[in-house]
Write a structure and sequence with these properties.
Distance between the termini: 32 Å
Largest sheet: 10 strands, mixed
Number of helices: 7
Structural class: alpha+beta
CATH topology: Aminopeptidase
Order of helices and strands: EEEEHHEHHEEEHEHEH
Strand order of the largest sheet: 1-2-3-10-4-9-8-7-6-5
Number of strands: 10
CATH class: Alpha Beta
CATH architecture: 3-Layer(aba) Sandwich
Radius of gyration: 19 Å
Helix content: 25-40%
Length: 237
């Protein structure tokens, strides 16, 4: 999957690195190949789910707590729909409220625009049509692989919108993605990265959440071309 930005190109999920990219401003994200000609920017750990398996077997492999949360989301009439990407301003506003509450970097239209054609957004809502979760997915139709990208969860709590209900909605958003993209013929559901358990930081809770869906840990890498690496160094100096 190729994402063209203003000055650079980002290639996702490749199993090799193109030698010709040495002389270009290229970043490889979640690459499974190796090359001595590129700079390894980061080791990336993620969890992969094989969507070619029966959906019943995939569900059985979820942790008990995750299965329970999905069932309770359905019991509490939480529903989902595909969100209109034309409403990207609302998506950014909703996600930024959540990201600000977690001290995460904020999204912008400039940041998201190159990805819009590759994104599918799910909206999770309650029986009063209150948005509970917006979860975006990056979709690679060539490799039949999909992964969560950016997510926002409702920040303001009420008598009916509780932390417990939002926990159900978050679990259901990922499960709805697994079901939907399997039906669409995709083969791999990528949970979107985890933090090694020995790293005690604010992302460890997210890792535990994702491990509720799969324990199939895969190691990939982020690479950047030498030219992009040098340009980044010059810019920082």
């Amino acid at each position: 999957m190729v994402v063209k930005k203003r000055f650079t190109v980002e290639k996702w999920f490749e199993d090799k690195l193109d030698v010709l990219d040495i002389f270009k401003l290229v970043r490889y994200s979640q690459n499974s190949g190796t090359s001595p000609f590129f700079v390894k920017e980061k080791v990336f750990h993620t969890l992969l789910i094989d969507l070619e398996r029966d959906i019943e077997d995939i569900f059985k492999d979820l942790r008990k707590g995750t299965r329970t949360n999905v069932k309770r989301a359905r019991r509490d009439n939480i529903e989902w729909e595909i969100f209109d990407n034309k409403k990207i301003d609302y998506f950014i506003e909703f996600c930024n409220e959540f990201r600000e509450s977690r001290d995460l970097s904020l999204l912008s239209l400039e940041k998201l625009s190159p990805y819009l054609e590759k994104m599918v957004v799910f909206r999770l809502f309650d029986n009063e049509n209150n948005t509970l979760v917006l979860l975006s997915f990056l979709v690679d139709k060539e490799k039949n692989r999909v992964r969560p990208f950016y997510v926002g969860t409702k920040v303001e709590l009420t008598e009916t919108i509780t932390r417990t209900l939002l926990g159900y909605a978050n679990a259901y958003s990922y499960w709805a993605g697994i079901e939907y993209f399997k039906e669409q013929g995709f083969k791999v559901f990528d949970m979107g990265g985890i933090t090694p358990q020995e790293d005690n930081n604010k992302l460890s809770g997210i890792t535990n959440f994702k491990l509720g869906f799969s324990n199939n840990v895969v190691t990939e890498h982020h690479y950047i071309s030498p030219l992009l690496y040098l340009l980044t160094k010059v810019k920082k100096s």
